[in-house]
Amino acid sequence: MTIRWGLLGCGDIASKRVADAIVADERSELAAACRRTEHLLQAFGERFNIPTLTTSAKELFAREDLDAIYIATPVYRHCAQTIAAAEAGKHVLVEKPMAYSPAECQRMIAACSTSKVILGVAYYRRFYPVVLRLAELIADGTLGRPLSILATTGNSTRFPTEDWRVVKALGGGGPLMDIGSHRLDLFLQLFGRPRHVQATCAPSPEHDTEDMASLLIEFENRCHGMLQCYFGTVDTPDRLEVIGTDGRATTEDLNGGDLTIITAQGRRTESHPPHANLHAPLISDFTDAIVSGRPPTVTGEIGMATNDIMAIAYRESTDNRVR
């Protein structure tokens, strides 16, 4: 069975990885694409040899020769577009963060449930071998009783003021929404549900979003999580570290996959690089979910859990600000 995909949004992430991942997947076909700007759409279609191109999302959703839609548009469009695709009978894989707010996430989940279509969220780092290795080290007791997880990440780009990533009405926030969300999803994957969230966000002098966010999370298992994320930094590491009573495991470059493990037995470094196309395992998993009739690895409920934390973080940051 071949899953016929429509791609809504042909910008940066679609051009870098999503289209290639769909084309390369042996059970997928990139059958259609949609972008509002005609000449950019045509160039994208030629590059990936896409047979059907349209500037209308409504026309894309209405096509009967499509099984699934990948939504790669700015965050503020995710909810309405997911609901419209679901009502048209299409399975939906939506870019992260899932939506502007938890309330929108819930609407998306409800719409896909009512239409009996599968909803997934593009938190592709859940499939990284280095993350799965961290899960093993926690589960098998190598690190002892887990105590904390730490992530520090940044994007060196100095976004122009009109970019949706730094316009609150379009992206919902700054680095916390854009890159911090990925790390929060991993926190949930590795440490489970949170019970308490504290946060502070530093307003940007150039944009109406934060350019730095710091979170402290206490999970239901009493472990702690600490996240720091930034926009516009020159050399921010992409660190993910788990510390337990009997050891720690650290990667300084999450996308690279090298993992240093330190215990009483000594220090060693393992290599667990991700797929050459970071989106490929995500596409493969979602395709298999459709074919097999199972939930995808990253469900709408999982995606909403990260939105829940971010909503609390933004509220906490505002409420705790000294006046």
UniProtKB/TrEMBL annotation:
Recorded GO MF terms: 1,5-anhydro-D-fructose reductase (1,5-anhydro-D-mannitol-forming) activity; nucleotide binding
Keywords carried by this UniProt record: Oxidoreductase
Membrane listed as a keyword: no
Pfam families linked: GFO_IDH_MocA, GFO_IDH_MocA_C3
Cited Gene3D superfamilies: Dihydrodipicolinate Reductase, domain 2, NAD(P)-binding Rossmann-like Domain
The EC number(s) this enzyme carries: 1.1.1.292
Chain ranges of the Gfo/Idh/MocA-like oxidoreductase N-terminal domain: 3-123
Domain GFO/IDH/MocA-like oxidoreductase residue range list: 132-249
Keyword Glycoprotein recorded: no
Protein name per the record: 1,5-anhydro-D-fructose reductase
The organism of origin for this protein: Stieleria neptunia
Lineage: Bacteria, Pseudomonadati, Planctomycetota, Planctomycetia, Pirellulales
Gene designation per UniProt: afr_11
